[in-house]
Amino acid sequence: MQRLIFYILVITQIVFGAIGEFDISSPTHTIGVASNQKSITIAWTTPSVGDGEKLGKYLWKFDKNTTSNLEDDNSANEVSASTNSLTIPISEEGEFYFHILPVLENGDVGVDKTFGKIVVDWTPPAVSYSSQVLENGEVEITLSSPESGVTIYYTIDGSNVDTNSTKYSNPFKLYLPKTLKFRGVDSAGNWSGEIAKYVDVNYIGNIAKVKNVEYGATIATSSKNGADTIIPTLEITAPKLAYYRYRIDGGGYSEYVTSSEKIDISKLSDGNHTIYIQGRDELNNTQTAPTIFKFTIDNTPPVVTGYIDNTKIGERNIYPNNIELLLSTNESNSTIRYTLDGDTPSKNFGYIYSKPISITDSKLVKVISYDALGNIGSVAELNISIDRVPPTTPKIFDGNGELDSNSSAYYQGKYIYPLPQKFHFSSSDNYTPTPKVYWEKEGKTPNIYTSSTGDILVSSSTILKYIAVDEANNSSPIGVKTIVIDEVAPKFGQPKFSEDCPIVDGVYVCVNNQLEISLSTIENETPDEVAIYYTTNGDTPNRNSLQLSKDGNITLHLSTNEKIFKYIAYDKVGNHSEIGEIRARYDINGANGANAIGVVLSIDDNSSINGSVQEIGVTIVNGGAEPIYYYKIDNGNYSHESNLSKGVDVSNLEDGWHTLSVVAFNGEFNSSVNSISFYKDTTPPTEPTIQVNWVSLDSIASISITTDDPNSTIFYSLDGATPNRNSLEYSSPFSIYKTTTIKAVAIDKVGNSSKVVTKFVQFQTSQVAEEIDENSSELNTSQEMNITSETNITQETNIT
Prior knowledge:
Number of strands: 70
Distance between the termini: 142 Å
Mean pLDDT: 85
Strand order of the largest sheet: 35-36-42-41-38-39
Radius of gyration: 67 Å
CATH architecture of the largest domain: Sandwich
Number of domains: 8
């Protein structure tokens, strides 16, 4: 039966008129305490009344209501004023209240007064039994009740149970078979029925146990690493145990020792161990199967490890930004403490690690960890640097020093070398002693993943880009150097002379005794650094020879004797050209004299030629017996020709303006130079277009011929003949009146002619038209019959 928590309801009487205070009590029941009695006795004191007043009666009621209004309750009971107690029968269980109201003879009343609550409980409690057979055969007995406030009594000698029997408090063990009797009594005095249980016990002897360590526990046996509790020995116990023997792990059994002796485990190594124990009592009853006890020894402190971005940190830990430091140990039940100010943490000092540590600036983090046994590891120091400053842009060095504007290889922003060159780099950083340098050739942007590192050998010209990267992966600004490997020697252009001197047997023969020569060089890399050295006595020039001025001009003073002018060019890195040579002499007669020699050319100055002109004719006046002439075209060298029947070949010249210079020599004197300019044009004009406009289907057609070339003239024929300059010249549209084959060609001013185009124009007779109309509604009887392969005919004909 469910038990209720009782309380006392205190009613404060308010005195009306002359009725004073009075007390209510019960000799049979206690307020709020359950009782199993079938009646209740309630007593009260007589209240005082005022002068001249007299108590007339009491109104009362015993029910389950917590309050009442007896004055107006017609079902209330009455007793005389002389009554001070009542014995009231109880017919059911529950919670009851006694209400009473004093009434004066004149009818005045006091205040209802309530006594309660009265708890009535007639239901006996329920009790139960459970047992457990232990490994040594003992039976452990547990008695219980689902209700609170129940006291259980029991006997094991067969006697009946009463309040003089053993009161149950905790589970107890039976070593022998017994008849167990038990019953319970609740706070109301209700007794359960007596229950008898025969307990069969098969006790098998002394089962030795380890007293001071739990099975499967992890213990420390040494204080060398700070363990809090040290258990160097195991204590063995069992009821009636006198002796025992044991073996550890795979070892053999010891001799029997007294039960007071302990097993020394202080020398065992860390790890899992098993001890087998066999007990014996004074009567030599020996435990049949040994007790198997397993335990673990842990004298090793945990090891703490730090991680950043799932990567284990080492001795030097440098990062470019704020980081989250994760700490973990190799033991699950260990504690980590740490400091961020350089102090040494301990078991009782430092932050307890529970979540990742946010590191925003450089810190020396000191960390220790200790396990549940108190084994504590040594202090780990994690040097964490937050490095937001990139390293400096690397400096680059060749064998002579740093590459800068003062370097001997420097030229107009480039570094020029005559041979492949090896370079090395250097950079500095706040935290990283030697930042790593990554480089790329060909102007590619370097990176830390695919670019090369270390020294570099540059074998060909390139744009070298490089960066320095520190341990925090901060990258320096990109350095750029243009490296030029210049293995190409400078070359000389065609020399220019102050006058055209014909060449006789390889010697320039000049009519003036001073010859001004202008030399130019072709140099890709260092054009401003080319130096020209020369000699005028035929010696081979070198860097110790005379140096020509920067403009490349020199005046040679000639005599009738041959002067040999040799010259050579050196670039900045020492590459040199081939040696050039000019041989010249002075001939005072030159082109003058009584029998002056002259040159006549077959075309005029500023004239034009087409592709049919293969050569320009040369005629020598006063040439003597065996005249020859020298010529050059544009800026070429002079060539000589002795066959006067052969002109100057111009067949291979490209279209455009050209200059022809010719000098004749009669064996004694040179002529003056005859120079002309001419324009070569071998490009034919675009072919003309013939358009037919029908005026009348069968009688008249208007013909228009056009061309896109404004500098050409159109010639045409109507008889099928190929047109040329002597054919009809087209000026405006014309008409034809019969079937005709028209051919047309465009001819430019130079004489180049276009392809000949042909148009066949056929007139239809009315009879045919009528027949065509009858046979096909789709036939255009006024059609222009443009026949691609038969009617529109284009011929390639050169018209001269």
